[in-house]
Amino acid sequence: MEELKRARTIIDACDQDIVAIFEKRLEAVRQLAYYKKSQNLAVFQEKREEEVLNKVQSHLNNPAFEDELRALYQEIFRISRKMQSQIILPFNIVLIGFAGSGKTTVLIQRIANLI
Question: Collapsing DSSP states into helix, strand and coil, what is residue 31?
């Protein structure tokens, strides 16, 4: 039972550190989003995400956790892109029109420009 308490104490301390670091990262993401907005840059930059993933994997001490680290960063990237998208495009777009009028084409082109 003492071993369980000790493990949970370590996890609680790690969680506290993770939250503080995550807040710091999200603040940097927010600043980046405002810069991207001012420069009309795309939210999604696949090459940059791959560079970040490779860099963080190089910091990993235990290669057994590589899949978990990749999954974690894929979620971090998703959250970051969502946050940036909300800053860059803080509104919803509704397309209406007859079937075959080009709504999907316009949407796909617009999304391609954002990415």
Answer: helix
User: Vertex 35, ends 30 and 38: CA angle to 5°?
Assistant: 130
Residue 42 DSSP class: -
State the CB neighbour count (10 A cutoff) for residue 53.
Answer: 16
Q: What pTM, to 2 d.p., does this model score?
A: 0.78
- Express each pLDDT in 44-101 by its tens digit: 889 999 999 999 999 999 999 999 999 999 999 999 999 999 999 888 778 788 998 8
Contact 83, 29 (CB under 8 A): yes
Listed residue (76, 68, 96, 89) closest to 28, CA to CA: 76
Tokens of 5: 């308490």
